[in-house]
Amino acid sequence: MASSPRSPKTYQAFLFDMDGTLITSTAAAERVWTRWAERHSIDVAAFLPTMHGVRAADTIRKQNLPDIDLEAEIAWVERGEIEDVEGVVAIPGAIDFVKRLPPDRWAIVTSATVPLARARLTAAGVTPPPVFITAEDVEHGKPDPAGYLKAAKALGVDIADCIVFEDAEAGVQAGEAAGADVVVITAAQQHPLDTRWPELADYADAELKVSPEGGLTLGL
To answer: 0.85 exceeded by the pTM?
Structure first.
């Protein structure tokens, strides 16, 4: 079992989910997915909690809809999400927090595609780091740990020396499966999680220390 991020452990890298973790895009995403669910006569209230933190393709596949063009459905959702960035902003304190991190000590691991991720980050004013893992970069999306493992490898660090910042169940499971510690960001949550991990409302009061060697310590 991974050690708790509450201990004074020094980490080698921070790995961030994007939606709901660095930026608030929940309302925009749910607007688009509500329209999609209604087009297919899916129970919106039951469906919405299941689509957070996973790739659009995986969300659509799980509905087991007969006779659909999967690629066309993915394109419909992605186009809607790229066009709708109303209310997409950074989580409080997030921009300053990541600016304090050495560029080679953090990554974004998102279930969004490159075009959608860049549209939302631009709208929120967040500059992505050099290591930026998107839906196209992995064969299996969250809760599979592939994205986080790939990010750690690209940064040249052991995943056990990383903290994963997440807000959704699938992402938390991905971080756990990878072998990282996890912090749950709650600022944008509309569907609270019950996990064993510590929670952080936002980054405004988070204590970050960067050692001269680049080691990262997080105070909650």
So the answer is: yes
d(CA 59, CA 42): 12
Amino acid of residue 58: D
**pLDDT at 128 (0 to 100):** 94
CB 8 within 8 A of CB 160: no
Residues labelled catalytic: 17, 19
Tell me how many helices (H) and strands (E) the chain has: 8, 10
How many angstroms separate the CA atoms of 213 and 48, rounded? 43
- Judged against a pLDDT cut of 60, whether residue 153 lies above it is answered with yes
Which strand (E) or helix (H) includes residue 83?
helix 70-83
pLDDT reported for residue 8 = 65
Which residues does residue 8 pair with via DSSP β-bridges, in sequence order? none
Nearest alpha carbon to residue 93 among 209, 204, 220, 199: 204
